[in-house]
Design brief:
The chain is an alpha/beta fold and 965 residues long. The protein has six domains: 4-113, SH3 type barrels; 155-338 and 421-434 and 692-702, Tandem AAA-ATPase domain (Rossmann fold, 3-Layer(aba) Sandwich), CATH 3.40.50.10810; 344-416, no CATH class; 436-636 and 642-684, P-loop containing nucleotide triphosphate hydrolases (Rossmann fold, 3-Layer(aba) Sandwich); 715-781, Dihydrodipicolinate Reductase, domain 2 (2-Layer Sandwich); 802-962, no CATH class. It has 31 helices and 32 strands. The strands form seven sheets. Strands 13-14-12-15-16-11-17 form a seven-stranded parallel β-sheet, with helices on both faces. A hairpin with a 5-residue loop joins strand 24 (732-736) and strand 25. Helix 21 runs antiparallel to helix 22, helix 22 (643-659) runs antiparallel to helix 23 and helix 30 (878-924) packs antiparallel against helix 31 (930-949).
Length: 965
């Protein structure tokens, strides 16, 4: 019972009966009553001193004391004067020692220690104990899954992509060149690496530099694939902050953690100077082959990226251009990754020639590695291999054994030249690609177009002499209006195609891509006014939300759009694997752009053959371009990695042929030149293949365990059950939308707000297949920010820390009781040390009976106790409860001490082995950086210290009393 002397004006007290009032402050005291104001709800209460209805808030050393102005201290000492408590400790924002008198405490602070909350009647519903335990266990299991950073990405599980993401993403400050061929997912690989580095704490500040045309694509990909938002920096952004920069001297690049900009933007001297003052964790450069370098000179773009690469800890360069098409340019890219090693081009050429000989020597080993037949090893020439792999110990391998052949191959891959820096997969070696079937539709040009093309300035805004552009896009002639689809034979052909498809049972979807948004919009208007064909448009003039809606309408099976009409830029950043028909309403003059168009459908994960439909006008540049692409490059039916090189070599001849479509003999000769040049360049690529590098990039048999970990960690049934239970506890409404998705909304009894959930709700799915098909649906996994936010909201709050309940246990007498606790071992360490790999926050659940013995009783049903009775029971059992908590903590400490020892052994085993491996490899492969070895040594030492210093703490306690009647 509280006496008058217990109260003083300014003290902070909590209501035992109305915990929702928050923290109160004593406003007045007399000999009978005390007046308390509760600022959080702006309500005042009067309490009789004799009622014992209040609990004094008294924080302890080691706890966090928040000030009403928003800052906080970690309490180091507690003192009291004139009835008021003063807390002293360093501030979290500036580390300066400061004081907080209790009257200045934040109104939302609560009793944190479970035993204190229990003793003072600060009780929650007993089911919250189970919710807290479930959150701890889920968090622990996911940390141990080996899939952190790999599960939450909205991508298909493609082995070579997952291998590269896992191999590179787990490194300290990775510096690599991702050079997979077109369509194999370099952007996804980079996104997965960044995602893993961010979630593991190894990267925070990230700068992505891409060609101007790809800025939006990267913005969308990072947001859609791995839920990472980036700030786009351009001239407009800098102008907006220019005044504040001049006034305050603040660097705009320091105001954002993740920045995306174009390479042309970063070239500006002022921009580069500002960007160079920031310590970037990762620099990403797409289309890195555009960075021109030679021994004589380097382009401005190359110099800018070189400056940034010296500052950034990690560097990811992306390019589909094979290194075999130019060792000098390949050397220039590697020079950005490791200038100390790649400092002399001539030395590099010599080194590369040795690697090529080794790759040729190991071909028999590669071919026999997975062959169980013992005689397949007879063609392996170890002496030849040893010539080009000095230091390799071949005596320990029995090549008649399949496992030994695999082991030798793995060791060679590990030691091989640029294998640690350079990853390149070829489409020919990757399974899962469909066939491409091209069908031409020659059309006779209309009289209206013939008249328009005769006008020298017929194309609005174009060069008068550019007859090729006129012929490829006659619908843009200035003398024509928006009614051109009514006389364009390609449009009438398109309508007939769609009507025929809609009459079939499959009702196939069709994606149409053209060069300009105006073309797509005008075709769409014709379809709207003249047909009943369901359609939608997708172009750069639309907002991201509008594009989302259009893409969803196109993706919807029932009552969705049959055709989507895309502009060139509008189609970037989206993949439509569910669609199998592509209409190329016009053809681009850039072969890479053609591949990008087809690549919207031709990607890993496509389930059917792709039908490419190409309408073109006869005796026109359109016909010539179709023939050059089809018969010269073979670009419609196969990917063409040499298209740009052919265009560079024969550009003038190709343009001449396009400008003279009636000279059939000439353009046929040019087509043959294109074919022969293409064949020669492809042969150079094939002869220059480095099969060891390809094996290293594909992951071979190293990826199986990682894939298994991902599949187990993302178990949609397990995740759905856990989140359904958590949503229910938090007051979030989850409604089933269909078999694969749900809609969540804030309920009236919502405890914590969830970011991203609007008034209309948020559509979610637990299935990867649904998430990859419907990009507007939030994908829920252990990596999801939404999941971690919900778990953190529970575990960082006091909810569920103390409770009491009745149970009905038939095998025990009425009045029997148990003390349940959750103890947690949660060491602290810098996030980049990846402590979670060895010792994530580890919960232990202990139950003690009335005799202070560990109990394994199962409580199927629990019942809430009324507040008044709960206080009486706790008061009567206070001594026994205290003893039970102490005994339970002793048992938990014993178990967790074993956990600590196992974690320390794991640190020693894993990191010592990795250090030894890298030290030995460095003798043979200079791509191993001393910086990386030093980091692992420091990581091992700091993890040891953090784990040694960790002690378990009491997270929550629940009292169970048998009330069987």
């Amino acid at each position: 019972m509280a006496e008058k002397s217990d109260f003083a004006v300014g003290q902070r007290w909590l209501s035992n009966a109305e915990t929702s009032l928050g923290l109160g402050v004593v406003m007045a005291v007399d000999f009978r009553s005390v007046t308390v104001l509760f600022p959080a709800v702006n309500e005042e209460r009067n309490y009789a001193i004799s009622q014992n209805a209040l609990t004094r808030l008294q924080l302890s050393e080691g706890e966090i004391a928040p000030h009403v102005d928003g800052w906080q201290i970690c309490i180091e000492s507690v003192s009291e004067q004139d009835g008021l408590i003063t807390y002293t400790g360093p501030r979290a924002d500036n580390s300066e020692v400061d004081n907080i008198v209790e009257v200045a405490l934040d109104h939302g602070v609560k009793l944190n220690q479970p035993e204190k909350r229990l003793a003072h009647g600060q009780l929650d519903h007993p089911k919250w104990f189970d919710t807290r335990l479930a959150c701890w266990q889920h968090q622990y299991e996911f940390a141990h899954s080996g899939a952190l950073g790999l599960v939450g990405a909205r991508v298909e599980l493609i082995p070579h992509q997952i291998h590269i993401a896992h191999e590179v993403g787990s490194r300290y400050a990775p510096r690599v060149l991702l050079a997979d061929e077109v369509g194999l997912g370099k952007t996804i690989e980079a996104a997965l690496i960044i995602h893993q580095q961010v979630l593991s704490g190894r990267a925070e500040r990230i700068l992505i530099c891409v060609p101007d045309s790809l800025v939006h694509q990267w913005l969308v990909e990072m947001l859609r694939r791995v839920d990472l938002s980036f700030s786009v920096f351009d001239e407009e952004r800098l102008e907006a902050v220019k005044e504040s920069v001049e006034e305050s001297g603040e660097n705009p690049f320091e105001q954002e953690q993740r920045v995306l900009c174009s390479q042309s933007f970063i070239e500006h001297a002022q921009v580069l100077e500002l960007a160079s003052k920031v310590e970037w964790d990762i620099l990403v450069v797409d289309e890195a082959h555009h960075l021109h370098w030679s021994k004589q000179a380097a382009s401005e773009s190359y110099q800018a990226i070189e400056t940034l690469s010296k500052i950034a800890k990690g560097v990811l360069l992306l390019t589909a251009t094979p290194d075999q098409l130019g060792h000098e340019s390949h050397f220039a890219r590697l020079r950005l990754l490791d200038p100390a090693r790649f400092h002399n081009y001539d030395s590099f050429v010599k080194e590369e020639s040795e690697y090529a000989k080794l790759a040729e020597a190991v071909t028999p080993l590669i071919e026999s590695a997975n062959d169980a037949a013992s005689q397949t090893h007879e063609d392996i020439d170890l002496a030849e291999i040893e010539k080009y792999a000095p230091g390799l110990n071949t005596e320990k391998w029995d090549l008649s054994q399949t496992d030994d052949r695999k082991g030798l191959l793995r060791e060679l891959i590990d030691q091989h030249g640029t294998g640690r820096l350079f990853f390149r997969n070829r489409r020919a070696a990757i399974q899962g690609f469909p066939q491409r079937i091209v069908t031409p539709y020659p059309q006779r040009i209309s009289k209206e177009y013939e008249l328009a093309l005769d006008m020298p300035s017929s194309i609005s805004g174009s060069n008068v002499q550019d007859n090729v552009s006129h012929a490829l896009h006659p619908e843009r002639a200035s003398m024509l209006d928006e009614t051109w689809p009514s006389f364009d034979p390609r449009v009438s052909w398109l309508c007939a195609l769609l009507e025929n498809m809609s009459a079939t049972a499959n009702k196939d979807k069709v994606l149409l891509i053209c060069a300009y948004a105006s073309t797509a919009l005008q075709i769409a208007e014709y379809l709207r006014s003249k047909t009943s064909i369901r359609h939608t448009v997708f172009h750069e003039g639309m907002s991201i939300v509008e594009r989302d809606k259009a893409a969803h309408f196109f993706a919807t099976s029932e009552q969705g759009a049959q055709i989507m009409l895309c502009s060139e830029i509008g189609s970037e950043g989206r993949n439509f694997q569910f669609c199998h028909h592509l209409v190329l309403f016009d053809l681009p003059l850039n072969p890479d752009l053609l591949e990008q168009r087809i690549g919207r459908l031709d990607r890993i994960g496509q389930t059917q053959d792709i039908n490419v439909h190409v309408p073109y006008f006869e005796n026109n540049a359109q016909e010539v371009l179709y023939n050059i692409y089809h018969y010269g490059l073979g670009a419609f039916t196969k990917t063409c990695p040499v298209g740009s090189q052919v265009w560079d070599e024969l550009g003038s001849e190709i343009h001449s042929a396009l400008a003279s479509p009636l000279d059939k003999e000439n353009w046929q000769d040019v087509t043959e030149q294109v074919a022969s040049t293409s064949t020669l360049l492809k042969l150079q690529i094939e002869q220059g293949r480095d099969r060891l590098l390809e094996l290293n990039a594909s992951g071979s048999d190293k990826i199986d365990d990682v894939m298994d970990n991902i599949v187990q960690a993302e178990n949609p049934v397990h995740m759905m059950k856990f989140m359904t239970r958590l949503f229910d506890a938090l007051g979030v409404i989850q409604e089933e939308k269909d078999d694969n998705s749900f809609v969540i909304r804030h309920g009236e009894s919502m405890l914590f707000p969830i970011p991203g959930v609007s008034d209309d709700g948020l559509e979610i799915t637990y299935k990867r297949s649904t998430a990859t098909q419907l990009e507007h649906v939030r994908y829920i996994t252990g990596d999801s920010e939404l999941v971690t936010h919900c778990i953190d909201s529970v575990l960082t709050d006091v909810v569920g820390k103390s409770s009491i309940c009745f149970v009905n246990q038939a095998d025990y007498p009425v009045g029997a009781f148990w003390v349940e606790i959750v103890a947690v071992l949660s060491p602290s360490a810098n996030k980049h040390l990846q402590l979670y790999r060895f010792l994530p926050p580890t919960p232990v659940h202990i139950c003690i009976d009335a005799k202070n013995q560990e109990s394994y009783a199962e409580f199927d049903a629990i019942f809430k106790v009324k507040p008044k009775m709960a206080q009486q029971l706790i008061g009567a059992l206070q001594a026994q409860i205290t003893q039970g908590i102490e005994q339970a903590m002793q048992l938990a400490s014993t178990q967790l001490e074993t956990v600590k020892s196992q974690a320390l052994e794991q640190v020693d085993d894993n990191l010592s082995a990795e250090i030894d491996r890298l030290v030995e490899l460095k003798k043979l492969n200079p791509a191993i950086r001393e910086e990386e070895i030093d980091f692992i040594r420091a990581q091992k030492s700091q993890l040891h210290a953090a784990i040694d210093a960790s002690e378990p703490y009491l997270d929550s306690v629940r009292i169970l009393i048998n009330n069987r009647k």
